[in-house]
């Protein structure tokens, strides 16, 4: 071995490229600000109504972030903070008012609702044309049929990240083996449907999936949305896979972590999202995008 080779030899494993959701979300908000300014010039002002029931601190932080994003982009926001003892009937009445209000283009009820409230009834009461969370049967059904209208913000944000990250190299999900961990109505299911629509071959895993590790080892795209801190270990990740971490967990030290063990996974993945600064900011950006598109759909594409 030459002296040069000895010096140059064993290189540390290369770390994955970071998929910077924070930067992408800022770009999308900038694009939306321009669209909203054009709409305003034509006398159209998109509006989002948000209901927060109870005192859950995490929900209050999420709602605060959404209202701030509205302000930044120029979307009018209406916020209703309701006590934890609000009844389902009272919440349905508020939704009925917003459904009938022509100034409201999007309605969002922050989940989870306090125990005792009928989440399904609340979600289904929102007019499909104003269902900017995309959780209702109409919008989810349309997605399943491959003709989406308003798509759930988190999985749509993931698709937008994959699109924007892949664009320079020509990478797309088409033809890739994708594993989605989680089958919730809000994240896992719509995520799987979106990847399917993008021509990936999709496997959905959940808490009853035996040998999750070997399912993940087959995947060229991994979306972790299980709500289990560091569930996905680095040695589960196939070399060169693209890893999207949807999970959010706040540790006792206040730090946020995800469903993926970032330190080890980033040594094997081609690209990976950080937590924080990955999927979270994209979720809010896509909520804003949904509000603008709900406004355009309701008031005609020309506005
Ligand atoms: P959820 O409703 O609790 O669903 C979790 C899913 O993961 C379920 O389908 C569950 O399976 C599955 N699961 C749980 N433990 C598992 C395990 N050990 N192995 C395999 N699958 C497992 O949660 P969610 O609302 O979808 O959210 C998931 C995570 O994403 C949470 O950490 C949440 O905080 C986060 N989140 C982040 C954003 C964001 O903007 N970044 C947005 C939404 C959610 P079963 O169906 O069998 O129970």
Keywords:
binds NADP nicotinamide-adenine-dinucleotide phosphate, 11 strands, 11 helices, globular, 42% helix, three-stranded parallel beta sheet, 303 residues, Rossmann fold, alpha/beta, six-stranded parallel beta sheet, 2 domains
Question: What's the architecture of the largest domain in CATH terms?
Answer: 3-Layer(aba) Sandwich
Please report the total strand number as a whole number: 11
Beta-strand content estimate: 5-15%
Our count of helices gives: 11
Q: How helical, in percent, are the residues?
A: 40-55%
Order of helices and strands: HEHEHEHEHHHEHEHEEEEHEH
Low-confidence stretches: 1-6
Query: What is the CA-atom radius of gyration, in angstroms?
Result: 21 Å
* Strand order, sheet with most strands: 1-11-8-7-5-6
């Amino acid at each position: 071995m030459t002296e040069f080779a000895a010096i140059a030899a064993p290189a540390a494993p290369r770390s994955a490229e970071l998929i910077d959701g924070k930067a992408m979300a800022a770009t999308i908000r900038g694009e939306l600000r321009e669209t909203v300014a054009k709409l305003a010039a034509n006398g159209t002002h998109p509006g989002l109504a948000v209901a927060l029931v109870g005192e859950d601190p995490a929900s209050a932080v999420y709602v605060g972030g959404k209202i701030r994003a509205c302000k930044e982009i120029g979307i009018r926001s209406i916020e209703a903070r309701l006590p934890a003892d609000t009844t389902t009937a009272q919440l349905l009445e508020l939704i009925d008012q917003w459904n009938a209000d022509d100034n409201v283009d999007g309605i969002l009820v922050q989940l989870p609702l306090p125990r005792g409230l009928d989440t399904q009834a609340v979600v289904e009461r929102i007019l499909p044309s104003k269902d900017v969370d995309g959780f209702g049967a109409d919008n989810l059904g349309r997605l399943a049929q491959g003709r989406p209208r308003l798509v759930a913000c988190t999985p749509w944000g993931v698709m937008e990240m994959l699109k924007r990250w892949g664009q320079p190299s020509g990478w797309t999900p088409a033809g890739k083996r994708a594993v989605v961990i989680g089958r919730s109505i809000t994240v896992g299911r719509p995520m799987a449907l979106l990847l399917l629509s993008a021509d990936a071959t999709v496997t959905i895993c959940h808490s009853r999936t035996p040998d999750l590790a070997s399912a993940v080892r087959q995947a060229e795209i991994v979306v972790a949305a299980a709500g289990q801190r560091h569930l996905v270990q680095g040695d589960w990740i196939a070399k060169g896979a693209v890893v999207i971490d949807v999970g959010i967990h706040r540790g006792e030290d206040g730090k946020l972590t995800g469903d993926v063990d970032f330190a080890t996974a980033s040594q094997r993945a081609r690209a990976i999202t950080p937590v924080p600064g990955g999927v979270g900011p994209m979720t809010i950006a896509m909520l804003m995008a949904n509000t603008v598109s709900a406004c355009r759909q309701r008031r005609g594409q020309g506005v």
